[in-house]
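We modelled the chain as a single entity of 462 amino acids. Its sequence is:
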Amino acid sequence: MSAGETLPVAITRTLWAAAGGGPDLLNKLEITGRGDLPSVFPVSDLATAAIGVAGLAIAELIAVRFGETPRVRVDRRLSSVWFGLSVRPQGWPLPSLWDPLSADYETENGWIRLHMNAPHHRDAALSVLKAEPDKQSVAGQAAHWQANDLETAVVTAGGCAATMRSIAEWKTHPQGSAVAGEPLFYILTQDSGSTRDWDGPRHRPLAGLRILDLTRVLSGPIATRFLAGFGAEVLRIDPPWWDEPIVALEVALGKRCARLDLRAPSNRELFTQLLSEADVLIHGYRPDALARLGFDAEQCQKIRPGLINVSLDAYGWTGPWKGRRGFDSLVQMSSGIADAGMKRLGKTRPTPLPVQALDHSVGYFLAAAAIRGLTNRFKSGAGFEARTSLARMAALLIDQPGAQENAPIAPEEPSDLSENVEKTSWGPARRIKPPVVVDGAPLRWDLPASALGSSEPKWQSR
């Protein structure tokens, strides 16, 4: 961080450079608002920076296509709120985002987090523990295990678990060491001679573009939600058995959601057709999962020359855990964030970030990369591939100075809500106002959040 530079600007500079952006555009960024989410880490600074980087990518695209660079204003307070939940049900209760069994448990020698939101992950953990599906039974069985042994057993069984490690332990762990050596973004451009322009007007710069969304909770859907907000057509594809109703309420805004089982050859043919007409593919499958289905990066580029292919995983793209299932809450345990929160605040149990900040920051980072890929394709016709991970974003956050002595973010007020009522699949709702403003290109969504599987797997006619 250079002299006189604020932390959110410094983080923005780092993220923007990692996405391949030039430094000149940073003078178009204005940060307003104040306040911090309660954390020993600078979560509100990260929120402001990540959303700012996505806004800068839109400004750069507008500059390249239309010849003038708009200003980008990011509200620190609203960014902090959007890193939690943006949706406010009107007249009905919002159920819990978590399965009751997804929690931190004490073992013989430390803490472990078991992630059981998905039924198959829950079944895997319960089978290893030989526990009944209630929290008391799980806690009783976990207490007889060594933390690392239980972590290994649950992961081997197809579940999701993470031992709580310290920052120092993670840095010397083979996976932590591997992630530390990775760039924030792997970026590769591929000369394809594709069509360069599209029909999006200045005020809806992504209109006319098609985004194929193969992501689940939470980063990838946040990225595609942002792209939809500037006019892109987003088609989300999920397998028939997957559901995440409350998360979908938050992140399916602006999208159509369909289902396909890509293990079936006929569905792979349909997916190939969808991909051949897409401009951007964003996916959060584990490394090599799409390749095993016949859709590695090289094949995707052949199917759609000029494709912008953006992906993420949990624990990084190198090292012994590169294929490990993971979520934000697990990476916080593995990387030392939950341990640092506990120790620095004098708590007696894991103390994670107040929001799933790794998921959200990576989501906006992915959106920025996708937009930069489109800008690059407009200029050169080249395809574009980029990938990052939750663990790499955790390393960035850990390396920042501690949270400043700023006041807490102000309580929510009625004026924070957008005026229009969104008719979601779950009931009427309103959203918190957008956290970023790009001059002349307002962030708004044409479709309400809809349930997974509520649309057909096809593009709308152009």
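As a brief sanity check on the tokenised model: Residues 43-66 form the longest helix (24 residues). The first strand starts at residue 29 and ends at 32.
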